[in-house]
Specification:
This protein is α+β, with helices and mostly antiparallel strands. The protein is built from three helices and 15 strands.
Length: about 210
Amino acid sequence: MNLTNYYWYFQSAIPERICDDIVRYGKSLQDQLATTGGYGDPKKLNQKQVKDLKKKRDSDIVWMNDRWIYKEIQPYVHQANQSAGWNFQWDFSESCQFTKYNKGQYYDWHCDGWDKPYNKPDEPNSHGKIRKLSVTVTLSDPKDYKGGELEFDFRNLDPDKKRNIVKCKDILPKGSLVVFPGFVWHRVCPVKKGSRHSLVIWNLGWPFK
């Protein structure tokens, strides 16, 4: 897919008090080990599976479905979709993923979209749909941690290009957010000091024709 913009950001868009409320709320809930495709329930993984998983992803997450959080963030997804010129059809947001990256934790290269649409007949809001737009919100002050940068790799979008890695420095300020298509490859670099908190939401729509 030929894109003019590979991501669209809003700097310091979410008020600090809202960021702090999300962090407090996230910390008050029971977290779990973050997994990636093919690993299933983190509580059922054996030691070897956990070790293998952490070669790809090492972070702790909490799931949220609170309307007040969506209300703060969804308008920016709509605005980015239009302003970036994507104009993707989407109509449902998955659960919000509050993520804690402590020292040494990271998430290696991946994309959020799946090869096939969701097969969830019991969940009509997601059945048959794909992840079209991802949004990442920075909840921490950059002075509270080092490392943990969000990076994009646009090589897969243009076969003629060599590896094209871009650090998304635009969302370092607290309350900043970035929206990007679900097929864009990205990673979170290891945190070198302190803790980084973020919120991720995947937004679904019918498969591209």
